[in-house]
From TrEMBL:
It comes from Nitzschia inconspicua. This is Uncharacterized protein. The chain crosses the membrane at residues 7-27. It comes from the Eukaryota. Keywords: Membrane, Transmembrane, Transmembrane helix.
Length: 493
C-alpha cells in the first residue's frame, strides 16, 4: 500500500499575521527492483536441498548482497531527499513583491454590465459534465488526429474514467476522423470555440497559428432576456484581443463551475503530454470536506538545476512585459513553475482561474506564453494564497510529483541527467540480442528521481527521441488499435 506523506515548508514573513505554506506531496513507494529487493529470498526455490553447506553459503551471500543493496539504496534516497529539501527552500515567496491579503478575484463575468443577468452561452457539442467526477481540462485547437490519439489513449490506458473536457476549433470539428474519434468516448465533453484572430498587421485570419496572432471569442456568455432565463442573447467578447493561451482560462472557469467543490481538476497542455499512470491516484484527497474550508492547489516546477525564471529569456520577458523590470528582477533566482500543468480541488481551481483571467485583464499582455508570467507572479507574490477559497498551495519539484516537466532538460539526453534513473529505454530485440545498427526504440518510460513511474509526462516533444517515438511510431500503433476497434463495432452492428 502506498503511503502519502507531506513535507511542509513554513516561511514566516516579518510581522505579517498570516503564514504562507509551501507544501510538497511525497508518495513513497517501494524503490525499483534494480535499486533494492524488498522481498525476502525464498531459499527453497534458489537452493538444492541436498547440500547444507551450499545452502548456508548461498544464504550468507544473499544476506550480504541484500545488505549492500539496501545500504546503497538508502544512500541514494538520502541524497535525493537532501537535494529535494534544498530545492524546496527556493520556492518561498518573494518579500519584495509580496501582496498583503486578503485577495478578492471577481468572476470573469464582472466585465459585463448588469452581471447578474449574465449566463454561460456556449454549450458542449458532445456529451455532458458529471459534477461528481474528476475532470481534465484542455484547449486543443488546431491539432492533428495524432495529438488526440496519443493524449486520450495513453490517458484511458491508465484506467482513468473521469471527464475529459476540451475546447477545439471549428476547423478540427469539421474533420471527420477527429469528430469520429472524439465522439466514441462518452465522457469526452467537447466544446467548439468560435474565435476570430488577427495577425501582426491587424488583418483577420482564420487560424490562431503563425507568428503573432491575437484573438477574440464571441458567444462564451449571454444575457438573459426573459425572467425564467429561457431566452438568452449571445454576447460579443468584451475583452481585449489576446492569445488563445490566455483566453482558455475563461473557458476553464466556465467548466469548473460544473463540478462539485471537492472534485479534483487537472489543467494540462494537450499537444505535448502523455500519461503513464492515473494522475488522480496521487492527489491528497481529504476524508472530511467542508464548504468553507478552501481547497488545495498543486503546482509543478521545472528543473531547478537546469533553469530559473531569470535564466530563461522567455520567462524574464513575460514577467517584464506584464509587470515591469522590478518584478522580473525580484524573481530572477526563483524556480520556474509551469503554467501548462496545474491541479486542484474545484473550489481552489475556480478561484485560481478567476485570478488568471484577472491578470490578463489588468496587464493586457498579448505575448505568447504570458500566462506563465501570471502564474509565477501570483504564486511568488503570495497573491493567490490570500484568497479564502485556497487553503494551501502544494508545489511539487520536477521529478518528485505527479507531473514530470521535461522541457528544461533538453540541453542533453534525458538519461544523462541526475542519477540516470529518469529514463528507461526498451529497444527492439531479436532472439534476445539488441538489433543493430537500427537500434530501434520500442518504448520509453519516464521515472521520477526516486524510481517511481511518473504519472504524467509533460513537454515530451522538446526531446527528439520522444517525438520520434510518439509521433512516428506509437501513434500509428494507437491508430491501428482505433481502426481495429471501429471494425469490431461495425461487425457487431
Amino acid at each position: 500500500m502506498v503511503h502519502v506523506q507531506r513535507i511542509l515548508l513554513v516561511c514566516s514573513i516579518g510581522t505579517i499575521i498570516w503564514s504562507w505554506i509551501v507544501s510538497f506531496v511525497v508518495v513513497p513507494v517501494p524503490v525499483r527492483a534494480d535499486m533494492n529487493d524488498e522481498h525476502p529470498i525464498n531459499d527453497d526455490v534458489l537452493i538444492a536441498p541436498s547440500s547444507a553447506e551450499r545452502r548456508r553459503r548461498l544464504t550468507d551471500d544473499t544476506i550480504s548482497s541484500q545488505k549492500r543493496q539496501q545500504s546503497q539504496s538508502e544512500h541514494n534516497l538520502s541524497l535525493l531527499e537532501k537535494v529535494h529539501k534544498e530545492h524546496l527552500s527556493l520556492f518561498t515567496i518573494s518579500e519584495s513583491i509580496v501582496t498583503l491579503g486578503p485577495t478578492v478575484f471577481p468572476k470573469p463575468t464582472h466585465i459585463f454590465e448588469n452581471e447578474n443577468d449574465i449566463v454561460t452561452y456556449i454549450q458542449p457539442v458532445h456529451s455532458n459534465h458529471r459534477p461528481e467526477s474528476d475532470a481534465i481540462f484542455l484547449f486543443a485547437a488546431e491539432y492533428a488526429l495524432q495529438n488526440y490519439l496519443v493524449f486520450l489513449t495513453t490517458l484511458r490506458d491508465t484506467g482513468y474514467d473521469g471527464d475529459v473536457v476540451m475546447a477545439i476549433s471549428a476547423m478540427d470539428w469539421a474533420k471527420d476522423d477527429v469528430k469520429e474519434y472524439l465522439q466514441h468516448d462518452p465522457h469526452v465533453i467537447v466544446y467548439v470555440v468560435q474565435y476570430e484572430c488577427y495577425n501582426a498587421e491587424g488583418e483577420a485570419v482564420e487560424s490562431a497559428k503563425g507568428g503573432i496572432r491575437v484573438c477574440k471569442q464571441d458567444h462564451l456568455f449571454g444575457r438573459r432576456k426573459s425572467g425564467d432565463g429561457t431566452i438568452v442573447e449571445p454576447l460579443p467578447d468584451p475583452r481585449h484581443l489576446r492569445t488563445l493561451q490566455n483566453s482558455r482560462y475563461e473557458l476553464y472557469w466556465i467548466w469548473s463551475e460544473k463540478y462539485h467543490a471537492y472534485s479534483w481538476i487537472m489543467l494540462i497542455d494537450a499537444r505535448d503530454t502523455f500519461f503513464q499512470r492515473n494522475p488522480f491516484d496521487w492527489v491528497p484527497r481529504r476524508q472530511k470536506q467542508f464548504d468553507d474550508a478552501g481547497g488545495i492547489l498543486l503546482f509543478f516546477g521545472e528543473n531547478v538545476d537546469a533553469t530559473r525564471l531569470g535564466q530563461s529569456a522567455h520567462n524574464r520577458d513575460w514577467l517584464t512585459k506584464a509587470y515591469g523590470l522590478h518584478v522580473a528582477e525580484a524573481l530572477v533566482d526563483k524556480p520556474t513553475i509551469c503554467s501548462g500543468s496545474t491541479m486542484g480541488e474545484q473550489v481552489a481551481i475556480e478561484m485560481y482561474l478567476r485570478a488568471m483571467v484577472m491578470e490578463s485583464d489588468e496587464t493586457r499582455t498579448v505575448k505568447m506564453g504570458a500566462d506563465q508570467g501570471f502564474h509565477n507572479r501570483l504564486y511568488y507574490s503570495n497573491k493567490l494564497a490570500n484568497a479564502k477559497a485556497i487553503q494551501k498551495i502544494i508545489v511539487q519539484d520536477q521529478g518528485y510529483g505527479i507531473v514530470n516537466n521535461l522541457g528544461a532538460l533538453r540541453t542533453k539526453p534525458l538519461d544523462q541527467w541526475g542519477n540516470s534513473k529518469l529514463l528507461d529505454i526498451e529497444r527492439a530485440t531479436k532472439e534476445g540480442v539488441e538489433t543493430n545498427p537500427d537500434n530501434v526504440v520500442k518504448n520509453m518510460t519516464v521515472r521520477n528521481w526516486d524510481g517511481r513511474v511518473s504519472p504524467v509526462v509533460h513537454q515530451f516533444d522538446r526531446h527528439a527521441e520522444f517525438s520520434n517515438l510518439y509521433f512516428k511510431k506509437k501513434w500509428r500503433e494507437i491508430r491501428q488499435r482505433w481502426d481495429a476497434s471501429k471494425k469490431l463495432q461495425a461487425e457487431k452492428r
